[in-house]
Specification:
Largest sheet: 6 strands, antiparallel
Helix content: 40-55%
Number of helices: 6
Radius of gyration: 25 Å
Strand content: 15-25%
Shape: elongated
């Protein structure tokens, strides 16, 4: 997973360069177009287009039957039951393409979430910085934190033995990309921090080597599995997504907008691409 994240990260970082200084909605709109084309192409290649067309025709016929015999309750009930069966059949036919579409789509969206789910800190803002250790309980370990110029700690370390974690309040002073150093038992772990107003890759968490953790947080290499530090997190603010005068401050708002735009473009492009949805 580490190698895959590194490869995808390099490609996505390069493709994201034109959007660094633009509003987040611009990048979301642009990304939704090729994703729509890709999904349509896969759907057309992996689905049984003839059967999908036939099932949709049967659904339309049943709907017409309801309208035609609107005073016959038995006929209406029969047509509604047939519609349910046809819809289930259609969903079964559409499930096959999803097997091919979802894996690459999930990998792409996880990468894009690092750009559009959060925003960089502004000078003067503070955030919770947390270091989780592999072992819980016991006496307080000797952990040394190195803070570069441009950042500072608002509070001393708060040690929580039951959770095996240290907590600080980290403050941003100047724009820039920084690295925090955490030294324990002779080994040093690095965590990146970004103070910026641009749409850039952010890393709210440097994860352990578990597959799911690496899948969710691909921006930094995972921490060594045999190290004393298990996880380092920093609470970036949730990004704001604006569209048509509306604005949402939610880390997953961009995904909702992305899916809506993808569906709109897919329906707009299905006829030119000759795909039946």
């Amino acid at each position: 997973m580490t190698a895959l994240n590194s490869f995808l990260g390099t490609v996505i970082d390069w493709l994201q360069l034109p959007f660094r200084g633009l509003p987040p909605i611009v990048g979301v709109i642009v990304w939704s177009i090729p994703v729509s084309v890709f999904a349509l192409w896969i759907f057309g290649k992996t689905s049984n287009q003839a059967k999908i067309t036939a099932v949709k025709a049967k659904i339309a016929a049943s709907l017409f039957e309801i309208r035609l015999f609107n005073d016959d309750l038995q006929a209406i009930a029969k047509a509604q039951w047939e519609i349910v069966g046809h819809v289930l059949r259609y969903q079964g036919l559409a499930l096959v393409p999803m097997i091919f579409i979802l894996p690459p789509l999930v990998l792409l969206m996880v990468q894009l979430h690092q750009f559009y789910g959060f925003r960089g800190f502004e000078p003067g803002e503070t955030a919770l910085l947390r270091v989780e250790l592999a072992e819980t309980g016991g006496p307080r370990p000797d952990l040394v934190i190195e803070i570069p110029r441009g950042l500072h700690l608002e509070t001393p370390a708060v040690w929580v033995p039951s959770l095996g974690e240290f907590n600080w309040e980290l403050a941003a002073d100047e724009p820039g990309d920084y690295e925090l150093g955490f030294t324990i038992e002779g080994a040093t772990s690095i965590k990146t921090v970004s103070v910026t107003d641009r749409v850039v890759r952010l890393s709210p968490e440097r994860p352990p080597r578990a597959f799911v953790d690496q899948l969710e947080w691909p921006s930094e290499r995972p921490l060594p599995s045999d190290g004393a530090i298990q996880r380092i997190t920093i609470a970036y603010p949730e990004a704001t997504m604006g569209l048509f005068g509306w604005s949402w401050e939610w880390s997953f708002a961009w995904m909702v907008v992305f899916f809506v735009l993808t569906m709109v473009f897919a329906f707009a492009l299905k006829k030119p691409m000759g795909v039946e949805l």
